[in-house]
């Protein structure tokens, strides 16, 4: 909500907002189940994202004015009695105050390594300060003590609202404090500036409604982005997109609106319940959402046109987004709040899947790895030894391009192999093992050997110049042979304490110290996923490390 003095029109809007919030809370106490949307839950599972919990700050008091850039988060915190600015670097997990000496600091904003804030206890005698963390330097940006509030910073500009002649205007300076512009002098009130590179957006009141304005510093031009009868407030900007909250003149719930700069094609991101505090970075918009009757954090991807929940803690306020990082204030008790974060990461085929609500004969859920084996892959896997030979599934099915043919194929990784479905191949050869052995085999071991005569314990393959013998020959012949594993492409040799031999589609292993003394396939599927960065590497064996 707006904190600076407004005329009666906007006070009534704020009062309507409070009534709307109360109505939402009341309806939620009657039946939260009515607000639940199973289809939305289903859609959530299909999103190409995974949400990884991040930091939780130390306990603070009356946390507000959250701002983020990259992996750096700053906020106003009253934990020591007076407002001060705290900082958390999620890269190293380090939390601190921005300065060691005490001062009355409020309303921080951060971009790259620079933080701006309002300093001074007297509301009419405050200044705008900037600290460059990289250079460990601090400077005053405003001319002198004045009634200033809500600074915003980008890579090149700093803006804030300042009270002059009984109205609020927007002051803009460069990062070194050089004057750039005063905005909103022809309006009754202006406030809530937001900055991105060389652009400033803010909300301005023309006597009838609040609208969103943009200042382009390169062109030294002001443009009215909205000019309708509704009240458009709380703008945020990233790149060529602006988002804001729209309060309709006829009442009802506020809406989150997104629109490209220079284009009147607006998009309503959320409506039908109380929302506030939008933030945007690149294509992701986040906001405080009360659809459950209590505050949560939701997000919208402008590229994919999808809405998804970030935090359903029902104690999540005033979110911000920067890159893949989303941060918000958690906790209903103002005396005990924390800053919490979530990292939006690309969903990977290795991400675990939930077990089915209703079992299906076409799908087999493997709880050991939390993945399904379905359809033709399921039949092939079961017919060729299942987990004993091929291992458990490590991914879902997903599509990729065959580098040899350029065709789109469906693949699925298992612990020891990778299955491929080639739709244009003959029907009896559409499902096969990928050539993981060829990709992983050490070239030094692939030189052909002298041919030898075949007998009961040995067999030579002129196609690759290698042979198989004894236990490996027996395992190869009994578990699928040429059709499943392909030709041998190395001879037997010792690797990591095991006797191994590479085939086109697999690696055979024999561990002389194993209790079973059996031949098995090496974990080529798992190793390939680790090389891709889709699975964590195996733990380091420290048993042989001595001081």
Alpha-carbon distance between the two ends: 61 Å
Number of helices: 8
Name the average pLDDT.
89
What structural class do the secondary elements suggest?
A: mainly beta
Short description:
With 547 residues, this protein is mainly beta. It is 13% helix and 41% strand. The strands form 11 sheets. The chain has a 4-stranded antiparallel β-sheet with strand order 1-28-27-26, with no helix packed on it. Strands 2-3-4-5 form a 4-stranded antiparallel β-sheet, with no helix packed on it. A 4-stranded antiparallel β-sheet has the order 6-7-8-9, with no helix packed on it.
Description:
The protein is built from 8 helices and 40 strands. Strands 1-28-27-26 form a 4-stranded antiparallel beta sheet, with no helix packed on it. A 4-stranded antiparallel beta sheet has the order 2-3-4-5, with no helix packed on it. It starts with 7 loop residues before the first helix and ends in a 15-residue tail after the last helix. By secondary structure, the chain is mainly beta. The N terminus and C terminus are likely disordered. The longest helix is centred in the N-terminal third of the chain and has 23 residues.
Please supply descriptive tags for the structure shown above.
single chain, 547 residues, mainly beta, 4-stranded antiparallel sheet, disordered N terminus, disordered C terminus
Task: Indicate the topology.
Elements: H1 8-30, H2 38-46, E1 49-56, E2 64-69, E3 72-77, E4 84-89, E5 94-97, E6 105-111, E7 114-119, E8 127-132, E9 137-140, E10 148-153, E11 157-164, E12 167-174, E13 179-183, E14 189-196, E15 199-205, E16 210-216, E17 221-224, E18 231-238, E19 241-247, E20 255-260, E21 267-270, E22 275-281, E23 284-289, E24 296-301, E25 306-311, E26 316-322, E27 325-330, E28 338-346, E29 363-366, E30 371-374, H3 375-383, H4 386-389, E31 398-401, E32 408-413, E33 418-421, E34 431-433, H5 436-440, E35 458-461, E36 466-469, H6 470-478, H7 481-485, E37 493-495, E38 498-502, E39 507-510, E40 519-521, H8 524-532
Antiparallel strand pairs: 1-28, 2-3, 3-4, 4-5, 6-7, 7-8, 8-9, 10-11, 11-12, 12-13, 14-15, 15-16, 16-17, 18-19, 19-20, 20-21, 22-23, 23-24, 24-25, 26-27, 27-28, 29-30, 31-32, 32-33, 33-34, 35-36, 37-38, 38-39, 39-40
């Amino acid at each position: 909500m707006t904190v600076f003095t407004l005329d009666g029109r906007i006070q009534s809007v704020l009062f309507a907002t409070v009534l709307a919030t109360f109505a939402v809370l009341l309806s939620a106490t009657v039946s939260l189940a009515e607000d639940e949307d199973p289809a939305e839950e289903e859609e959530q599972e299909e999103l190409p994202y995974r949400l990884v919990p991040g930091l939780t700050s130390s306990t603070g008091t009356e946390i507000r004015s959250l701002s983020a850039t990259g992996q750096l988060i700053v906020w106003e915190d009253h934990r020591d009695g007076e407002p001060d600015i705290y900082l958390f670097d999620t890269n190293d997990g380090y939390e601190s105050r921005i300065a060691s000496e005490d001062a009355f600091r409020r309303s921080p904003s951060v971009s790259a390594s620079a933080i701006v804030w309002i300093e001074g206890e007297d509301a009419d005698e405050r200044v705008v300060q900037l600290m460059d963390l990289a250079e460990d330097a601090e400077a005053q940006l405003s001319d002198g003590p004045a009634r200033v509030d809500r600074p915003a910073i980008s890579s090149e500009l700093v803006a804030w609202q300042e009270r002059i002649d009984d109205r609020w205007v927007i002051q803009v300076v460069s990062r070194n404090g050089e004057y750039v512009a005063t905005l909103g002098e022809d309006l009754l009130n202006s406030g809530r500036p937001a900055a991105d590179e060389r652009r400033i957006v803010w909300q301005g009141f023309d006597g009838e409604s609040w609208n969103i304005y943009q200042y382009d510093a390169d062109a030294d031009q002001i443009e009215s982005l909205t000019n309708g009868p509704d009240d458009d407030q709380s703008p945020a900007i990233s790149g060529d997109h602006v988002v804001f909250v729209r309060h309709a003149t006829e009442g009802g719930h506020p809406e989150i609106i997104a629109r490209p700069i220079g284009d009147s094609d607006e998009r309503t991101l959320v409506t039908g319940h109380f929302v506030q505090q939008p933030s945007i970075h690149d294509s992701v918009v986040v906001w405080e959402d009360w659809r459950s009757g209590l505050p949560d954090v939701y997000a919208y991807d402008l590229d994919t046109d999808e809405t998804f929940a970030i935090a359903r803690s029902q104690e999540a306020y005033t979110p911000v987004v920067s890159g893949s990082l989303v941060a918000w204030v958690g906790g209903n008790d103002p005396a005990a709040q924390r800053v919490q974060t979530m990292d939006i990461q690309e969903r990977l085929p290795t991400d675990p899947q939930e077990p089915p609500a209703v079992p299906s004969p076409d799908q087999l859920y493997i709880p050991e790895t939390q993945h399904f084996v379905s359809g033709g892959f399921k039949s092939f896997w079961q017919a060729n030894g299942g987990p004993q030979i091929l291992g458990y599934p490590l991914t879902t099915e997903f599509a990729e391009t065959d580098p040899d043919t350029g065709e789109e194929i469906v693949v699925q990784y298992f612990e020891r192999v990778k299955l491929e479905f080639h739709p244009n191949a003959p029907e009896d050869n559409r499902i096969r093992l990928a050539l993981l052995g060829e990709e992983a085999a050490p070239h030094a071991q692939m030189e052909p050997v002298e041919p030898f005569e075949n007998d009961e314990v040995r067999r030579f393959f002129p196609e690759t110049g290698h042979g198989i013998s004894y236990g490996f020959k027996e395992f190869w012949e009994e578990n699928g042979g040429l059709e499943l594993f392909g030709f041998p492409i190395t001879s037997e040799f010792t690797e990591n304490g095991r006797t191994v031999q590479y085939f086109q589609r697999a690696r055979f292993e024999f561990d002389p110290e194993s209790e079973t003394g059996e031949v098995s396939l090496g974990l080529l599927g798992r190793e390939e996923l680790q090389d891709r960065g889709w699975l964590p590497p195996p733990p380091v064996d420290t048993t042989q490390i001595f001081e």
